[in-house]
Amino acid sequence: MARPGSKLGSALRRFSGYFAVSAICGVLAASLLVPAIAGAAVALRESTTMFNNLPAELRVDTPSQSTKVLTADGKTIATFYAENRVRVSLDQMSPYIKDAIVAIEDRRFYEHGGIDAQGILRALASNLSNGGRQGASTLTQQYVTNVLNESLMSADKGDRIVLNGQKSVADKLREMRLAIELEKKYTKDQILEGYLNIVFFSRDAYGIEAASRHFFSTTARNLTLPQAALLAGLVKSPSFYNPAVYPDNAIQRRNHVLDAMLSLGRISPAEHAAAAATGVELDMTPGRQGCAGADMAPYFCDYVSHLILNNPAYGVDLAARVRTLYRGGLTITTTLDSRLQLAAQTQVDATAGANPDKWGASLVSIGPGTGKILAMAQNTVFLPEDGKFDTQLNFNVDSKDAKGNDLNGAGGFQPGSTMKPFTLAEWLREGKSLTETVDASRRSYPLNFRWKSSCGKVLGAYSTMERSLGAADDLQNNDAGYYRRMPVDYGLYNSINTATFAEAAQLDFCGIQRTVDAAGLHSGLDNAQVNMHQLGNLLGAIGVAPLVLANAFATFANDGQYCTPIAIADVTDAAGNKLPAETRSCRDAIQPNVARGVNSVLQDVLKRGSGVYIKPKVQSRFPVAAKTGTSNTNGATWVVGYTSGIATASFFGDALEGQKRPGQNITVNGKFYKSIDGYMLAGPQWANYMLEVAGLYPAAEFPPPPESMTRKR
After folding, report:
1. CATH number, position 265
2. Helices (H), 419-562
3. What's the CA gap between 513 and 516, in Å, rounded?
4. pLDDT in tens, 475-518
5. Which residues on adjacent β-strands are paired with residue 534?
6. Are 392 and 300 in contact (CB under 8 A)?
7. Does pTM surpass 0.70?
């Protein structure tokens, strides 16, 4: 909007206005603000000197702005804010709102130099004659007030804010002085833009863009005349003129704004009549703050927020990082694929979306070769909701990655037989073949069994005869017909416990440990190493987070190269400056030929092994490998599987803190299960999801293992 009059005229008005106000402000401001002391003997010279010695510098920082968390394809996940504000430039605002706010708040805005002497005299005369307290603040003064208050709020000093009705003469004089200096530094349009971006409209709307979205589900650019007039009128008293609570008050105030616009010639009589004839016509979009109000993926949102809050790059301490997240106006672009997320959420809800016994279901996907987390879903809601399983525990991540407000991640779940491929990987690394036979008839491994370990002692024993000495009962398989000699690959794709132990009896446990460590497996509870010298861990006795397990299998899919999981692809601040994000970080972990050997066996899991009962259509359409898993008590069941483009861990079981419940004699979705197994619930959940999403990422054939691994001996 162009300012009326010449630059010279404007400069002269500011120059004369400065001295005029300086000369009278001591007496007039006192009279205006505190009529009772209007007759006090205040020397004009002393008032002028005091005014000129007031602070003149005002630091105008960017006001608190909302942080957006986005998917990789640009869809909103969630918004974080202390004040719901989205800054926009003046040319992104409707002309109506610019004219309306000037007409109702400061009609001589483009004429004065920050202080409106005429306004002060008018208010003084009114207060003296009527005994009232009419104000005379210009838009510039109001902007100064908002800047000062915002600075206190951003510094967590909101208790120091002085409300308008409580301001002293000194407070008011200081604002006048700052307003005059502000006008020397910024153009009128810059001040108007700053004001419209900072001013308070409601508890959920700071600035005109947020107000437009909140009350009318539109943008500041697209505000109509009646909408703009209503919002401009709201500034005077956001509570009294709240159109959602007091629509009659809001209409009356809006029409007063329209009258002011008409009197200034900013709208025509016809426009005035048409706008005044409309009702409130709200289209509310309530503010949704944080992960509890996320549009999607609230638990992934929570994971991302903790990555920010735990990273010193976003602030020297936690308080500073909280300010950055909630006030910094960040745009956080994540790795999440909204297509996969929608499919994952649909599947976990279908598996056990509403169950009174609170059984957990989850899916998490990661990109082999990138480490990008593509989906993270579970069958719960973040806040209590009728008929839903609510929790703020994130089933998919380590406890440390969900820690905050004394809430932890679930700490992982026993992976069961999904640990067996890592013993096979060490078997192949030591030069053995997939076709070698092992004695899976052996069930007893007593306390004195001579295990191989070049770096420590193997602990534990399976021997019913030695139970009194601390040994566990003899090893058991799920089916009785597998206590016999069998090829190693057959033992794995049929998930035979005794076959895995027969392999381990020929291996160096330190090698098994190195393989497990290289694949990134660790305890989900305390991030400790999964100690493979504890015999129970060959069959998955320590809880591992689904994300960690999915990424370990992604290492097989990626020809043995491990990539650190990443969730944050790009971060910019409110000014568009780049902030640290997570970048691809990969390393060689497992020999490529070893990974290929494992892949070849895990493809058979779905074709003729423990996953055949899933009847997965996905394996007929894409090259896919997978492994089922079930804990001893059936309380944790799994399918972890992958194509060359997506690795996914599917979990069903007891996800409550402590995880003490056995998965036996339970009813899920109206169906009774005597005991649950990986193929029953986690399996279809995984297969249906992968069938829908596998084609969205490359699903190439897995390279075959070398002939030496598959040649019969």
Report:
1. 1.10.3810.10
2. 420-429, 488-493, 497-504, 509-518, 546-557
3. 5
4. 999 889 999 999 999 999 999 999 999 999 999 999 999 999 99
5. 459
6. no
7. yes
